[in-house]
Inverse folding.
């Protein structure tokens, strides 16, 4: 029996991670029952069950953050009460903005670093989802890390199949950014895609939903509604794809994804379909570098942001970032994206040839990791 900690609340990407993790574990460790629990809650009321298990598996997501424990993962107030291994599976970093300077300065608070050291010492391998994450962990003294890719890389029915390079874009999905600073950039991309594909069926898919609820703030709703209005006026099919994986089944009938949502990008590639990712931060950059598929930086550093990270004096750097903008939308992103799409249409998406082999090669690494589980 494994205790599987899931981050699935509303964002459909987290539900997709949970599903793909479960599929991989059931396929390669069928003798183990999987008990799912939310990672944002303490394990105190389940501690007896936890200690009867073979281990705690933390589902993928950007969990390797400076406040890893107990900020992201509550686990137990005293980790000594957990008597079984804690095993991250396909976790990633969340470097902002996500360039080399971010990586160079990336660190964990002491409580998180202590927890990661304990985790590392109790298992043969920790699994991470991209090479930037692996480097960030290495720089913090965590060395027994396998870059397995995110579990969402792996649709078991698609392993060994070739990438589908579409000759025509009949249906296209756009996923908008979460950060409000990209609202205008989102709208410009909606218009650009409409101009490039005037006869295609276009979708605007909100992975984290549109309207406010316990997981979506009023400010997020206002931002989402502004993007939705523009998409409606341009003739997009606007879809709230939060909470339920059935809502993204229509992706299987689409030819191309363009957008900011990492797990829309990974879903398409896992199904051997083409996708172009805009990077909001280091999460997207890590994916693109690891899969050897070009992405577009949606951001650029401000002068203050650059100086703040060059100083590498945490209190001063954070104060500067609080007082001034650290990043802003990349003024060349739209032009770069349009050129990218136009080139791929001309070459029948030649740039994507081989991404299927990259995924399949890393599937062998994922199998090695799963085989190492207790």
């Amino acid at each position: 029996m494994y205790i599987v900690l899931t981050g699935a609340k509303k964002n459909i990407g987290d539900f997709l991670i949970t599903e793909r993790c479960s599929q991989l574990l059931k396929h390669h460790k069928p003798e183990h029952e999987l008990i799912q629990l939310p990672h944002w809650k303490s394990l105190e009321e389940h501690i007896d069950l936890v200690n009867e298990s073979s281990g705690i598996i933390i589902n993928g997501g950007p969990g390797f953050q400076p406040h890893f424990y107990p900020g992201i993962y509550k686990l137990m107030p005293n980790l000594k009460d957990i008597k079984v291994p804690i095993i991250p599976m396909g976790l990633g970093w969340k470097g902002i903005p996500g360039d080399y300077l971010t990586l160079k300065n990336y660190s964990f608070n002491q409580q998180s670093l202590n927890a990661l050291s304990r985790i590392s010492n109790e298992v043969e391998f920790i699994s991470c989802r991209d090479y930037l994450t692996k480097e960030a962990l290495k720089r913090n003294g965590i060395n027994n890390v396998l870059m397995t890719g995110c579990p969402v890389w792996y649709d078991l029915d698609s392993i060994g199949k070739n990438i589908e390079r579409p000759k025509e874009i009949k249906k296209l999905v756009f996923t908008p950014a979460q950060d409000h600073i990209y609202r205008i950039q989102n709208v410009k991309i909606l218009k650009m895609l409409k101009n490039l594909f005037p006869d295609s069926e276009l979708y605007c898919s909100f992975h984290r939903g549109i309207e406010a609820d316990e997981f979506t703030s009023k400010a997020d709703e206002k931002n989402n509604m502004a993007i939705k209005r523009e998409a409606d006026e341009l003739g997009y099919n606007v879809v709230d794809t939060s909470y339920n994986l059935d809502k993204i089944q229509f992706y299987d009938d689409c030819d191309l994804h363009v957008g900011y949502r990492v797990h829309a990008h990974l879903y398409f590639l896992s199904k051997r379909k083409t996708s172009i990712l805009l990077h909001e931060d280091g999460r997207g950059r890590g994916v693109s570098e690891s899969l050897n598929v070009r992405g577009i930086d949606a951001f650029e550093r401000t002068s203050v942001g650059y100086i703040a990270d060059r100083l590498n004096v945490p209190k001063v750097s954070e104060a500067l970032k609080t007082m001034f903008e650290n990043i802003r939308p990349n003024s060349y992103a739209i032009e770069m994206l349009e050129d990218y799409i136009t080139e791929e249409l001309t070459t029948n998406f030649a740039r994507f040839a081989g991404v299927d082999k990259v995924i399949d090669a890393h599937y062998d690494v994922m199998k090695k990791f799963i085989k190492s589980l207790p």
